[in-house]
Amino acid sequence: MSSELHTDIAIIGAGPAGIAAAIAACAQGAHVTLVDDNPRPGGQIWRGGPSQAPASASSTFRQLADSQARLLSGFRVAAIPAPGQLLLEDPHRAQVLRYGKLIIASGARERLLPFPGWTLPGVTGAGGLQALVKGGLDVRDQHIVLAGTGPLLLASAATLRAAGAQVLLIAEQAPWSQLARFGWALKAYPAKLAQAASLAWQLGGVPYHHASHVLAALGQTRLEGVQLQLGARTLTLPCDWLGVGYGLLPNTELLRALHCQISQGAAEVDALMQTSQAGIYAVGEATGIGGVDKALLEGRIAGLAATGAAAAAQALAPKRKRQLAFAALLDKHFALQPAITQLAQPDTLVCRCEDVSHASLQLFDSWREAKLQTRCGMGACQGRICGAACESLYGWQGSGDRPPLLPTRLGSLLEPTLAKANPT
Amino acid sequence: MNPVMHGDVLIIGAGIIGSALAEQCARRGLRVAVAEAAIPAAGTSAAGMGHLVVLDDNPAELALSRDGLARWQARRHELPANAEYRACGTLWLARDEAEMQEAERKQAGYQQHGLSSNLLPATALRKLEPALAPNLAGALQVPDDAVLYPPVASRWLLQNAQALGAQLWCKAQVSSVDDEGVARLADGRLLRARHIVIAAGNASATLLPGLPLKPRKGQLLITERYPQRIRHQLVELGYIRSAHASDGDSVAFNVQPRATGQLLIGSSRQFHDTDPAINWPLLQAMLSRALEYLPSLRQLQALRSWAGFRPATPDKLPLLGKVPGHSRLWLATGHEGLGITTALASAHLLADLLCEQAPALDPTPYNPARFGPWSLADQHHPVGVAA
Amino acid sequence: MKVQLFIDGQAHLATLGSNLAAALAGLPGRCSVSGQPRAALCGMGVCFECRVTIDGQPHQRACQRVVYEGMEVAREL
């Protein structure tokens, strides 16, 4: 592989949105390059690639395989050395990718919030545990508790059970009144309702507690148990794994670095999925959490729009309204209860990279000041975890991102074509 | 509107210079207030390396940096642990015989002023820092130089001042000052003091148009944690040439081992780039330079890079003293890349002047009158500006 | 199908195609800056808690790497 690649359409993220965009753009005859930092395409929902994805995904994977799209798996976007260029890195090499148009399908991560014991090995995100199981983690006969909020808890429980785990219970923080309203509203979305019913069927027998949350993870050097608030009572349970996630957050680092407008944590896009920057599109969870159907649709729209098929893209736009309405439902009915942001004790670590405690952060009133004085957010994750936690706990907004986007080998930053491309 | 604060000294800017001065004035029993436009220690003070280094290009620079380092050394045990003070020393690296001769000259200069330093031949250098490129000719070791983490050290100075009664006004953007001791804030409030000291770094020029201060951009990059790879602050002898190159863009090898095990990699200088974003070609030039000295850096992971702006004067010396033609308005800025090293020295010198005491150092070389005079922001054209 | 990898020099069998964080199964891969053991949290390349040294390269995210025959993993403890 030469160290510099050219493409008409670069797509970042090979989850459903990115794959749909690639298929649509390839069908228009464009040269497409699909970049993903995971070993295989599929994103989080279809993690593990075609062999492990559900039947509903197989035609999408087949269309991708039949397309002319160039797939760069295991490559992360390290930096933006100049307009129209991305510096990519894999464990062995660095590449410059020059593009005409860019579609960002960067997906989402879990909102992970601090509680006592959350740094113990054995405590993971709820979706994180699902991802690990999809990645081959053996959970046969393991005792697992899931807590947090949102439909992901159910999906994760289903994956874990299918893998042979004993899911002891699910603690959903939303109160029954909110859940009932969500269930009622789902009637307008038969497909989602069917998914929910199917999950409920797979989960037969797993206790599902509403208005419930984790209080603490217990153990010395590894998770041994969990203390829970279940409605009005507390319960302590021994367990092997604890998965806790408070919904999803769009990954916006690349969008921010490209100066795309972000509002309420997601990329702002027009009807054709274009961001505030001409020629840069955002699709899927990056524009707001809405699930796989929204992702597939948005990917198609952007794939068409970016290749000049504006009319065909426009024709799909009305369908998006319905997906956005569903996204709004999720937001509304799984909003966090105040107790969730008050679980951290003074000695609970909020920044896990630099081990910064809740007590030391409470002394400050801005992210910038806390960062300078405590190193919060200065570690390897670059504030991806603690930034969201600080926003939930203290109401702080993160400040400017500093390249590279992810820790990158110095040698990669010296990728020679970069300098040649940017004479001063 | 009546002034909302009365005191002896109002300091504009809570960077390391303003904070050190606030502490020094408060220690002398003065009633002090500090007006900070944004967040303490978040400007140039947060952007630099925190290398406490004695530089010897001219007697005035040597005097101030030497006094500054001595004062940090004397207080090292008072500093909080997260100020990360470490007396790691500096190795001035020579690539060839010509640079070795420069090292010898440098040593003679230090010796003349009673400063200790050791000339290291190539073998001794390799023993001290095995990661360095094998083709280096040697180095001059200055064992007393040190490093610290400036935002925490700066905040500590400010907290000391506050503990002695100094008031801190945050988000207090000063829009104008006069020679009657009145500062007007952007929100209309007035602050009054017997003396006003402008210690606002590059922003000082907005209050004193025509101030001979130019932002000189610098870029740094920090790696993930790789403990024990390097033990000294490593600087190429060509650093002085880069630091003092009067105009064009330049880079010089300068690497600091942080207490965390991270490596802080510099350095670059630019006068004409005012964009706070990273300049990639220059970052690459800086990293290429670093790899010439430390080839094993290539495999290390970069965590973050950023740019900052040093407040630079035409003669590389700070502005410490009265604003020319004024009786109650003072300056404490223009330290370019030496503000951390010289903060305590500058604070002592200016506090002495404010208290009408004779400073330990001759203040003449730092007197702003060497460039002045200037008019104030709300008046008309600046007069007699040295560019 | 299994592949053999080495964790701190000890041979381990892992399922072909699984990722390294899954293969480590909650075994701490690193010590935090204050000395606490840490293992995978997010499972998807975001949190950097699962960092280990792979084939001599420190600070690699285990969850982003598929195991292979002869992979040498050193925990950063």
From TrEMBL, chain A:
One of its GO terms (molecular function) is oxidoreductase activity. It is an enzyme of class 1 (oxidoreductase). Keywords: Oxidoreductase. Gene3D superfamilies: BFD-like [2Fe-2S]-binding domain (1.10.10.1100), FAD/NAD(P)-binding domain (3.50.50.60). Residues 8-295 form the FAD/NAD(P)-binding domain. Transmembrane segments: none annotated. InterPro entries: BFD-like_2Fe2S-bd_dom_sf, FAD/NAD-bd_sf, FAD/NAD-binding_dom, Metab_Enz_Cyan_OpOx_G3PDH, Opine_Oxase_asu/HCN_bsu. The keyword Oxidoreductase applies. Its EC number is 1.-.-.-. PANTHER family: ANAEROBIC GLYCEROL-3-PHOSPHATE DEHYDROGENASE SUBUNIT B. This is FAD/NAD(P)-binding oxidoreductase. It comes from Chitinimonas viridis.
From TrEMBL, chain B:
It is an enzyme of class 1 (oxidoreductase). Keywords: Oxidoreductase. Its EC number is 1.-.-.-. GO terms for molecular function: oxidoreductase activity. Residues 8-353 form the FAD dependent oxidoreductase domain. It comes from the Bacteria. InterPro entries: FAD-dep_OxRdtase, FAD/NAD-bd_sf. The keyword Oxidoreductase applies. This is FAD-dependent oxidoreductase. It comes from Chitinimonas viridis.
TrEMBL record, chain C:
Keywords: Oxidoreductase. SUPFAM superfamilies: 2Fe-2S ferredoxin-like. The keyword Oxidoreductase applies. It comes from the Bacteria. This is (2Fe-2S)-binding protein. The lineage of its organism: Bacteria, Pseudomonadati, Pseudomonadota, Betaproteobacteria, Neisseriales. The gene is soxA.
